[in-house]
Amino acid sequence: MPKKKPVNLSGDGTAAPSPIDTWWWLTHKGTTTSFLCISLFALLIRSAVSMFPYSGAGTPPKFGDFEAQRHWMEITTNLPATDWYRNGTRNDLAYWGLDYPPLTAYQSYIHGILLRTFNPESVSLLSSRGHESYHGKLLMRWTVLSSDALIFFPAALFFVLVYHRNRARSDVAWHIAMILLNPCLILIDHGHFQYNCISLGLTVGAVAAVLCGSEVLTCVLFSLALSHKQMSAYFAPAFFSHLLGKCLRRKNPILSVLKLGIAVIVTFVIVWWPYLHSVDDLLMVLSRLAPFERGIYEDYVANFWCTTSILIKWKKLFTTPSLKSISLAATVLASLPSMVQQILSPSNEGFLYGLLNSSMAFYLFSFQVHEKSILMPFLAATLLALKIPDHFNHLTYYALFSMFPLLYRDKLLLPYLTLHLLFTLIYHSPGTHITLPKTKASSSFSFTSFPGYVFLLRTHFFISVILHVVYLTIQPPQKYPFLFEALIMILCFSYFVMFAIYTNYTQWNLSSHVRSADKEKKQI
Length: 524
What we know:
Layout: H1 19-27, H2 31-49, H3 65-78, H4 102-118, H5 134-163, H6 169-180, H7 183-193, H8 196-211, H9 215-228, H10 236-247, H11 253-272, H12 279-289, H13 304-308, H14 314-317, H15 320-344, H16 348-365, H17 375-383, H18 389-402, H19 404-409, H20 413-427, H21 440-443, H22 453-473, H23 483-523
Helix pairs in contact: 2-5, 2-6, 2-7, 3-4, 4-5, 4-9, 5-6, 5-8, 8-9, 9-11, 10-15, 10-16, 15-16, 15-23, 16-17, 16-23, 17-18, 18-23, 22-23
């Protein structure tokens, strides 16, 4: 007789559903239901992470990013808009001066009103510096959580509904989980403490608008993203080249370009209006958005300039103006292949790859990149997770690892490990997302076909595990206090370069696939 499978019983004697049964129910209840359930779980995870320390907790005199965000609320709620970016006795720009575009300032003002209503001392001018009361911290955490729920989540739903119109439900639920349970974004926004969910949410909304053909809405949403955080420019080459490529294929390309240009200009004028009344005010704000005096890199970010500085002392060999020109040229050259492909052969899938390739080019080669900037290419990779599941899995690991020293300093080791485990469990959940058949556009090339690639990848992973242990247990030599950070940087950079080569090749291969498909149609 065949053995019966054991049945788990709940407290009242009824059969308890297994995790597989729960996942099956979730993936077969429709997109909206799946999104709602996963959203609630994602909010719960965010709330749990927010219970841990944040950047600069209890470390005067300047504290960290948490204090910077609070200070901006203090400034915007107590001073007129024209003084938000101006140095003065009541706004010392040396102490966390506002260095993001006006939409971030407006967001700080709205959140500051909330804090002033329920905890006035947390945003009182000058006297509130370093304020870390329980209620103040609770309100600050709530502002990030509400921003996620009101902006990033609806944008993600918009994208999912457009992107998954004709796709299996199990894949949809998995993709929703990948987007909403993005471990890098959760750790930075709800652990370290920032509001990346707003600019990234606006960007995801703009991407969804592209996929459904609403180009004017695309321009409005992406202009808002740029007006919130200048790092949204990482995606600008992809939006520009894709929309230009589509406009050039119309009967009246100039009219199409003008229409989109007007949408961009109107959006920027509305957002930047308080600073358009004088050239000095406008230049004052713009100067705050590009802090070139900080140098081409800070800390140990896994990009080209910081990694190669071990051998080439860029800051000693070149002046800051020269480095600005060199980094600009390198960034443009790295973005150019992706842009040309979309101008010549625009497509929705190519556009998503373009977002990934342009943002990775900016991360690797642009001026003044932070560890947190990996959020940009990682978001684009998340949108493509079903197309490149294996590479997405590896990118998630190394994106998290590249931020490990930063998160460890913030005392976020436990959330780091827990979210990594959660991602792994969800990534390997039942479904077809990991074993999707390769498309013609990507089947002709894969790193796995190269001799030694699998060995190299496993060696990378083994070294990363060793570095985790070493970083946590061994003190670095006094002569080289940042030795371990440098090794982590080199390891992550090497993977990011391989990943960028693969995704750029894949995007260009889409064009050859389209051309071969057109030839087949003509022959038929």
